[in-house]
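Lab channel / #folding
Pinned by the channel admin:
"Please post every new chain as: sequence first, then the structure tokens as a reply. Keep commentary short and put observations after the output so the thread stays searchable."

First post following the new format, from NK:
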Amino acid sequence: MGTRTEHRRSPGRAERALALQRLRAPATIANTARNARAEIDRHARWAPARDAVWQLVRRHLNDGARVAVLGAGNCDDLPLDRIADQSREVTLIDLDGHAVKAARRRQPRRLRQRMGVVELDVTNGAADAIATAAADDAAVPISPVVPESPLPGSPYHLVIGDLLYSQTLYPALVDLGIPAARTAAVLARYAPILTRSIVARLQTSAPSGTVLHIHDLLAWWPGHAQPVALDQILATAELDPQAAVGLAARGRGPHHSDPRAARECPRI
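Reply from TO:
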């Protein structure tokens, strides 16, 4: 019998390789890692969000509509089946090609035929460059070059920016262990630049259509207290939606990544 040689990477070597990769493309790695860690019940928990999005987009769809979703990821918050059923074609765009391809595979065959997948870093590497520079205490501020060109396949009738604005830079800074004060400074300086670029790309991709921005305005987790409770916001929204928006504005959120502040643009 011949001798078989097995090559196994030691845990230490694997960790060093991941750390090196994270330094080279920290924003990309941070987002793909979070998609891969999605909990099994996540899709079920996002059902109310899918219903809310559907109420917004349904009137903009017809059998000739071309739709693009930027930041599609796992698509847990999107009524993807309903959107595809009422459209001619849907293009799922994300830097994590594996996640969007898996989301497409979960759809019925007749709907998959209407769906395309585009693997794209909408910042063209700018988010990775900013996060890498932030990890170097001696680095001077950089001037990132970010594109504002239309998305692949444009023009579209409906373009959706799907919960990507606050995720473009912040997760990478967390994973790199950047101190809180420096993280806040980096976000204040660069998050508005990235957000303006993304908003511009969405607008130019639907020049005669509609752009929907889905943004995680507030979040609650252990150690991250808010001055207002979610239940209070939701209860207020039942009676006075504008008052509920005012309550939410009091919270601590990713304001530097808010697409509403990026540029005056058509909203639904």
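NK: DSSP finds 13 helices and five strands in the chain.
TO: also worth noting, Residues 27 and 128 are 5 Å apart (CA to CA).
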